[in-house]
Amino acid sequence: MSRKLIIFTCVIVSVLLLGVGLQTIRTVDLFPLSSARNVYQEAQFPVKSSVQSSATGDKLSLYMYTNPKDSVGNKVKVNLQTALGLAKLHADSITADELRTIKPNPWTVILLTGEDISELDQTVIQSYLNEGGRLLAYTRFYAPEWNDMLGIESNNGFIERTIHGIEVNQTVFPGYPNLPASNELFSNSMLDIKLKPQVNMYLSAEGTPMLWKNNYGQGSVVFWNSTSSIQKVGRGLMVQSIGLALDSLVTSQVAIRSLNIDDFPSPVPLVVNPLIRQEYGLSTPEFYERIWWEDMARFAKLYGWKYTGLMIGNYQNQTSSPLPTLLGNYPKIMPYFGSKLLGLGGEIGVHGYNHQSLVTPEEPINSNLGYVPWPDKASMVESLQHMVELANSLFPGHELKTYVPPSNVLNKTGKAAIAEAVPSIDIIASLVYAGEEEGFLEQEFGVDSEFPQFTNFPRISSGYWLDDSMKFYVNDVIANFGLVNHFVHPDDALDIKRSSGKGWKFLSQQFEAWMASLNKSYSYLQPLTVRDAVKKLSIYSAGKVDVHYSQDVITITTKDELVPMHYTVRVPANRTPEIPKEAGVLTRMEHTDGLWHLEARQPTVTLQLKEMKP
């Protein structure tokens, strides 16, 4: 072999080896991870208070009446109180006798939560409405003598079957999809009624009026022909429908959106997946790296997401001590994806040592999950400590703050184990709507009642392809207090059942269309990791907002509240709110009359309500 040929061959081999080496480095990220690379840059949220204000006008007065013997009414009451608290509104509970003392006012609303109105004096309510008071009934009740006040022309009593679905006839808050009768998200016992011609109907179900407003005397009545106000989904409509009864209403918005990637980073299955092989001709690890992650990184940059990845150590079912350590056995692809996520400004939290839910044999869990319970808290603690060791070795300097329970199942023993094993974790994220399945952890936003060291931050929605029910969930929480918390799993694209047999090209298109729609309609929602979202929500919850109303002016003052602060503002359809440029930005919300979004850049904002020119 000639000397030139030998040199040429060596060069070619060197180039090939260099290419393979670079590809290997690119795939498994063999560069050492320094703590500087993983130090989390915590978001900052400025807080200000109004100076001493001489705001004039009336404050909003909400009075909630529930018959103590009405079980449905009391459930609605609790649900409504939670919804109002999230929107930074407050209602005082009153008795039937105290109703007689309420003075009618354009910014005073009596809220009836139940179906038992036997204690109420009809003549007292009529007088209150005639003199300008406002009334809102959240649960349908059969009282023909009230027909005139409620705007009912004819009343045939209760419909003998359950009515499903919901149709938007006039916009209460933008973005709600229609739900057909085949959709059982809303299942109602309703009255068979016909409304008077002058009544404004907003929602209906199977052709039956569900939500309407009737002007009566100088006042007005808003009526829910429904029994669904006991459920969490619909809280946004419950809050926003108060504005239908009033001339004006301001509700607060925390303005957050977060996106979680569950089971990520984690060991990647090496088996051939038929969906991936058919669509891309790639192995599962190759698909994750070249296709799925590239799309997810593009979505993060294009739509501003700050991902929270929930890390898992293995998928074995061992729960008894001694547990094998995870150190030295982790797939190289885990630090690769984890470092990529952190490089996008994301957060890494904990999903578990394995995918076995942290419950003992005595604690509830659906047996169909096929999980192996943990014998005791000590075994749970050991597993979590192994997980912390792995996280510290892969991502030194990155503090673990968020925990998501496998299959959203968690009980007291598991919470105690987390508190002992990983003191840095102060957020538990499970489900806001858990249904009836055994063992699921259903949460409300805020401090955990059993373990106050934890803040609950439940997910609202999940998946790459959101059906109308899921879109309804998302929109309703935005209408309530301006928050989105969405979950996806990397292997959703691999599972025929979860993906409905659709490939990633279809799923990613659906996912991106949803993200684009969300950004277009609610551009003010700030993309945050879970840990920063909880920080912002805590500041929002602790701050105070006061609103004074008059016919021509609305004044908002705050104490220890976020700046900028976000609000929905409802004003009469023939009025336009105006503020000084330095005070913030007002944007009319799409497909609505009189509903605006306000980004307040000062702690005190005064809105002038100008009459629209014909």
Secondary structure topology:
Layout (H helix, E strand, L loop, with lengths): L2 H26 L6 H4 L8 E2 L9 E2 L1 E5 L5 H16 L4 E4 L1 H4 L8 E5 L9 H9 L3 E4 L9 H4 L1 E7 L4 E2 L2 E2 L18 E2 L2 E5 L4 E6 L2 E9 L2 E6 L10 H6 L1 H4 L3 E5 L2 E6 L12 H7 L3 H20 L3 E6 L20 H11 L3 E6 L24 H18 L7 E2 L8 H10 L5 E2 L17 E2 L7 E2 L4 E2 L5 H14 L1 E6 L15 H18 L4 E2 L2 H13 L1 E6 L3 E7 L1 E2 L2 E6 L4 E4 L5 E5 L6 E6 L4 E7 L3
Parallel strand pairs: 3-4, 3-5, 5-6, 6-14, 16-17, 16-24, 16-25, 17-18, 19-20, 20-22, 23-24
Antiparallel strand pairs: 1-28, 2-26, 7-11, 8-10, 9-12, 12-13, 13-14, 15-29, 21-22, 26-27, 27-33, 29-32, 30-33, 31-32
Task: Give a description of the structure.
The longest helix is centred in the first third of the chain and has 26 residues, at 3-28. 30% of the residues lie in helices and 24% in strands. The strands form eight sheets. An eight-stranded mixed sheet has the order 4-3-5-6-14-13-12-9. Strands 16, 17, 18, 23, 24 and 25 form a six-stranded parallel sheet that branches. A five-stranded antiparallel sheet has the order 2-26-27-33-30. Mean pLDDT is 92; it is low at 4-33. α10 runs parallel beside α15 (504-521). The protein is built from 16 helices and 33 strands. The protein has 614 residues and is α/β, with parallel strands linked by helices. InterPro entries: Class_I_gatase-like, DUF2194. This is DUF2194 domain-containing protein. Pfam families: DUF2194.
